[in-house]
Design a protein that fits this description.
This protein folds into three domains: 89 residues, OB fold (Dihydrolipoamide Acetyltransferase, E2P), CATH 2.40.50.140; 161 residues, 3-Layer(aba) Sandwich (Rossmann fold); 80 residues, Ribonucleotide Reductase Protein R1, domain 1. 34% of the residues lie in helices and 22% in strands. The strands form two sheets. It has a five-stranded mixed β-barrel with strand order 1-2-3-5-4. Strands 6-7 form a two-stranded antiparallel ribbon. A hairpin with a 6-residue loop joins strand 6 and strand 7. Helix 2 crosses helix 8 and helix 8 crosses helix 9. The chain is globular and about 75 Å long. The chain binds guanosine-5'-diphosphate (GDP). The site of guanosine-5'-diphosphate has 14 residues, from helix 5.
């Protein structure tokens, strides 16, 4: 994108952010978008250019908790300093949030903010896994982001096999848009390109090795991801690894690259789970007990539907798994320790019983 001509709208700014900025009385400060995140420093961009920006607690307008630290995609209020440096003084309310939770930590981590569409990528080789897709789907729905499925590496399977898979996916996820691509034969890349609109923000999700960087590079039409120099940060023109970064496409779309989304906890995504497993939510309204866990209760309509093969068994199993995970995340550390302690006692008792026999 030609830096001289960009507008805030080109960077994804819109009425939503502007009206929040007005309501918070922050119009006298410039806004900028976070386009890259490094250790303790951010690269931000606005119509003036790019700045290296830091958050300092005492300069923030509002106290923030760990989860609310800026993330790539955020619109922030900045105070410009000499030499293209800046201080981040506040974060404008987010339109959407993509977050994950590590199983051993209490706090959510924001992967990116203000993403409009998440391209969830699965590759057509051995890595193919619909349960994992469902997991990312939950994350997207929870964050208010539109999910689109990309089936990449279609050069590795036959057309018949691809059609079969697309059929299965459509059965399991009724309304999802599917784009089939190959970065090798370049099939489907135009479909992907046509999907992307000016000023909208996209991200690619999926485990490593499925072709996310290759797809982004194809969209950028050069190998920018692996070769981009970060002279701004080091001052020496050296390559520096970023944790996350936004790329600007020719047609005006904005793409956030998310390395390291392999371990995706679904956080406290009850809402996301309900959204994705709408069928199950509908069935559970008819269950005999309002707090039915759908695992063993009499009069459970979900179990009945699985038995009668009206509900996909894999979908049911994945639902139970994600639900348990979400419940575990919602527990406090004390509750988790108590659960572990009870389990320890249970094991001890069981062992003693074995000895007595
Ligand atoms: P990422 O970890 O998801 O970013 O994946 P990469 O883009 O680094 O790709 C992983 C590997 O898959 C590389 O060796 C790519 O060359 C290969 N790859 C990517 N896209 C395709 C594709 O459409 N077809 C085939 N056969 N290989 C691909």
């Amino acid at each position: 994108m030609d830096k001289a001509k960009i507008t805030l709208e080109n960077l994804g700014y819109n009425k939503f952010f502007e009206s929040n900025r007005e309501n918070l009385g922050l119009t006298k400060y410039p806004v900028a978008r976070i386009v890259a995140e490094y250790r303790e420093v951010y690269r931000v961009r606005n119509i003036e250019g790019e700045f290296l920006a830091k958050v300092t607690g005492k300069h923030m307008f509002t106290a923030i908790k760990r989860e609310d630290y800026p993330a790539v995609g955020d619109w922030v209020i900045i105070e410009e300093l000499p030499e293209n440096k800046a201080i981040i003084r506040g974060i404008l309310p987010r339109k959407t949030i993509l977050k994950r939770k590590y199983s051993n930590k209490q706090e959510n981590q924001i992967i990116a903010a203000n993403i409009d569409t998440a391209f969830i990528v699965e590759s057509m080789d051995r890595d193919y896994n619909l349960n994992r897709f469902e997991r990312f789907f939950v994350l997207a729905i929870e964050g208010n982001i539109t999910p689109v499925m990309i089936l990449n590496k279609i050069d590795l399977i036959s057309k018949i096999e691809l059609d079969n898979r697309i059929n299965k996916i459509q059965n399991r996820f009724a309304s999802v848009n599917i784009i089939a691509t190959s970065t090798v034969t370049r099939e489907g890349l135009d479909d992907l390109r046509n999907y992307i609109k000016m000023g909208e923000t996209y991200c690619f999700l999926g485990s490593s090795g499925i072709g996310k960087s290759s797809l982004i590079n194809r969209l950028l039409q050069k190998d920018e991801i692996k070769t981009r120099e970060m002279s701004l940060v080091t001052g020496k023109g050296k390559h520096t690894t970023t944790t996350r970064e936004m790329y600007f496409l020719e047609n005006g779309g904005l793409v956030v690259d998310n390395p390291g989304t392999r371990e995706v906890g679904i956080a406290d995504s009850d809402m996301g789970i309900e959204g994705v497993f709408d069928e199950i939510s509908q069935l559970s309204k008819e269950c005999r007990y309002s707090d039915c866990t759908h695992m063993h209760e009499l009069g459970c309509m979900v179990l009945k539907a699985v038995e009668e093969e009206k509900l996909d068994k894999d979908k049911y199993t994945n639902f139970i798994k994600l639900k348990k995970e979400a419940e575990f995340y919602k527990m406090t550390d004390v509750e988790k320790r108590e659960k572990d302690r009870k389990f320890g006692e249970f094991v001890k008792k069981a062992k003693n019983r074995l000895k007595d026999n």
